[in-house]
Amino acid sequence: MTGLVEAPAKPKEFYLEKQFHATGDAAGLEALKEKYRGRFLDYGDPRTTEVVKGYVMQAVFYQLTGEAFCPEKRCRLYNAHWQEEVLAQLSEPEFCPAHRRRLEALARG
User: Fold this and answer.
1) 39, 76, 79, 72 alpha-carbon torsion, rounded to 10°
2) Helix, strand, or coil here: 9?
3) N or C, where is the chain less crowded by C-beta within 10 Å?
């Protein structure tokens, strides 16, 4: 869980405000998280399962095809580095047209 919450970066503004208002108290951090809520994944977030599905699909797709990642940001196979990019992958459709066709072809055998 820590890797899902801490590894992809939160919005830049979050870090700037955190540094500017560096008080070190838990209440200040919670207020900052509340301000940016929805723009990043946090512990106990109900979107966690869907995010994990994307990471699993990246591993499965790579194992099946040898292809690493997708350049389309909304595709589940995109290599996201920012939380907002990870969350953007939760929208429909799950895969870009090229990868959707590729997965359908793999399913047909």
Assistant:
1) -100
2) strand
3) C
Give residue-wise pLDDT tens across range 40-64: 999 999 999 999 999 999 999 999 9
Length of the chain in terms of residues written: 109
Q: Give the contacts of 108 (CB within 8 A, at least 6 positions apart).
A: none
Which residue is associated with the tokens 């919005």?
11
Please name the residues in contact with 43: beta carbons below 8 A apart, sequence gap of 6 or more: 1, 5
Per the CB < 8 A criterion, the answer to whether 14 and 41 are in contact is no
Are the C-beta atoms of 79 and 6 separated by less than 8 Å? no
Pair of tokens at residue 38? 């929805």
